[in-house]
Amino acid sequence: MGKDVDNLIAHSPFYQAKRINIAMLLIHGASDTVVNVRQSQRFYQKLLDLNKPVEYIELADGDHYLSIQRNRHKAFTAIAEFFKQHLVSLK
Q1: Across the strands, what pairs with 66?
Q2: What sign has the CA pseudo-torsion 67, 70, 26, 84?
Q3: Whole-angstrom distance, CA of residue 12 vs CA of residue 51
């Protein structure tokens, strides 16, 4: 978004990956036409290379909107499990 390369780099999660200190869950549709799946693949690999806690799920035939029921189910199940593992209980 935008054309100011310095600003884009300064705010890009990819270029700020070394500063990430929380677990990440990345979910991306393999057929997303809004955001190229390669962006998530590259970000995932960068986080792995930096030994960051990350999980990546690529949804077969998935688009940007979770239009396919099986992908919605897979995504929401993964999100619920991620929250169970990483959210602090407020008891």
Answers
A1: none
A2: positive
A3: 19
Q: Tell me which residue of 68, 80, 41, 36 sits closest to 57, measured CA to CA.
A: 41
Residue 69 token pair:
């029921």
pTM confidence score: 0.88
**Dihedral-angle region of residue 41 (phi above 0 means left; psi in -120 to 50 means alpha; beta otherwise):** alpha
Cα–Cα distance for residue pair 67/72, rounded to 1 Å: 7
What tokens were used for 80? 């619920």
How far is 51 from 67, CA to CA, in rounded Å?
A: 32
69-73 contacts at long range (C-beta below 8 A, 24 or more positions apart): 71/29
* 41/75 Cα distance (integer angstroms): 16
Contact residues for 44 (Cβ-Cβ < 8 A; gap 6+):
26, 54, 56
pLDDT, one tens digit per residue, over 58-88 is 999 999 999 999 999 999 999 999 999 998 7
